[in-house]
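Lab intake sheet, docking and co-folding queue.

SAMPLE TYPE: protein with bound small molecule
LIGAND NAME: zinc ion
LIGAND FORMAT: SMILES
REQUESTED OUTPUT: full 3D complex as structure tokens
PRIORITY: normal
SUBMITTED BY: R.K., bench team

The fields below were copied directly from the construct record.
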Amino acid sequence: MKYLIILFVFSFLIACKSKQSDQLDLVISNVNLIDGTGMPMKTNVSIGVRDGKIVAIDSALMKSTENLIDGTGKFLIPGLFDCHVHSSDFERDFPKFVHYGVTSIFITGGSLCTNEYYAAMRAHGNQDTIPAPLVFHTSQHFTMEGRHPVKTYKGNWVDGKTVFLIKDTLQIEGLVKEVTQYPIVGIKLTIEDGPHPPWVERMPQAFINKIQKEATKNGTDVFAHVSDNTELNMALDAGIKNLVHWTGIDIDFQRDTLLIKKIYEQKPSFVTTLMIDKGFLYPLFPEWVNAVRQERVFDEADLSKANDPGYIARSKDNISFWKDFLQKEDVQLSDIVAFQVEDIKVLYENGINFALGTDTGPFVLPGYSLHEEMQLFEMGGMDQLDIIKMGTLNAATMMKAQDSLGSIENGKIANMILLDRNPLEEISNTMAIHTVIKRGIIQKRIEE
Ligand SMILES: [Zn+2]
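RESULT FIELD (auto-filled):
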């Protein structure tokens, strides 16, 4: 009897609670929904948001709120996720990400990334006054003396603060323990031999194996930086599950049977970063620079680097590399993209997780370039629904945040972009942004 009374009181409380749930903080009504899961678009859907989360998705009209956005003729997609970001000035960069609907980012180290800098970025991402994306990040780079990125990129790399220059495998146990005290998604490990000649040495296999082993012991993951098939093999041999670049990998499905077998067995996640290839070519294509200029979001100082002789020379070197590699005189961006997307498509269709990421840097711009990354995949023949999933749910999956983020489903954080045009017709319509919503709050965009 006592039990029945408790049950009765309990159901009464639930009834009261569901009455309150009619009150929503925000409703987007009658919209075309592309939810990020890869499911086809649904029409005439209404989305209800409360306390920063999506709490109702149905076609019944929810008009009991003052905050109603009429979604008629518009398209709703999840907030975008850039899975490979560096920032030397987050207060400058973060509003730009949000302006372009990028509501989550994954920072994979950098020469400023002390524990304090990471903490400041996380805190900035968690406040709702100034537009800023949610921040996920790795540890500081694990690399070695004279290797990438310390030798290849200038910057204030400080051993023990922004980078760990490992001298001996015996150091690794302690270092992994040290970095896992912080809220990292995993360890950033640089295996690669540098972005361009003269090559530096790769990290020895014994170091890589030990880092992965210690990471597993401490309940974390390794995010490895590889830039060719040899390095991908090294990472997979150590059991690494996350690769922060696809760029540089070239799979021949006839030749590389062992590598393919390893990929299908271990099912790693890859970040795409095709924008690196486009970024290298920017100074040779004034129309790209002008398109960015018309956005009125980026500093002229950054854009005028396209006239810098150093950057122009770098672009020309890059073109000659592609001429050799592709055995083609008149190399177009589409040629560079096609063979990579072709490989990615096969692996993607066989269940390998790909997440979009740009590797922000010169001519790879916060927010804007994630849309360019999507356009490169469309250029390579990938389906728009899949491209959107790679930029949303797949990224959240790589961050192990798929239960709370990455798609427009009940119970998830309300990060969404309302578009004026249909991105399934043309992926560049992801730039026809009407409203950006982060944690249920409408974000202020630049120059509004
Ligand atoms: Zn990077």
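REVIEWER NOTE: The first strand starts at residue 26 and ends at 33.
SIGN-OFF: pending second check by T.M.
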